[in-house]
Amino acid sequence: MTTKSTAKSAPDTAAEVAPSDEVKTVNVTTHIGATMETIKLSHHLNIEGTSFAPGDKIRVPADYARRLRRSGYVART
Fold it and tell me: CA nearest 26: which of 42, 50, 44?
């Protein structure tokens, strides 16, 4: 009994994955004129219906970034 060996090609991940240096700005409720910070996530996070994977960089208001750090969602740099 012989079996066919089929070589599976790896999917083109470059077209499917966003560049790692892309920073998404997240709109959360905050006061006018709040300073924004760029953070790198260490866990999956869902903000207002948008899912973010570990390693994603996002821009959030400083007070929200502080709350995420206390909860352990920000990666150590």
Answer: 50
Instruction: Give the closest residue to 28 by CA, choosing from 58, 3, 61.
Output: 61
User: In the structure encoding, which two tokens stand for residue 63, read together?
Assistant: 């007070």
* Each residue's pLDDT tens digit, 44-54: 999 888 899 99
Question: What amino acid is encoded at 47 in this protein?
Answer: I
Residues in CB range of 46: below 8 A, 6 or more apart: 52
55 contacts 77 by C-beta, under 8 angstroms? no
CB 19 within 8 A of CB 55: no
Predicted pLDDT at 76:
80
Query: Of all helices (H) and strands (E), which one includes residue 63?
Result: helix 62-71
| Cα 35 from Cα 53, distance rounded (Å) | 24
Query: What does the alpha-carbon distance between residue 4 and residue 20 come to, in Å, rounded to a whole number?
Result: 38
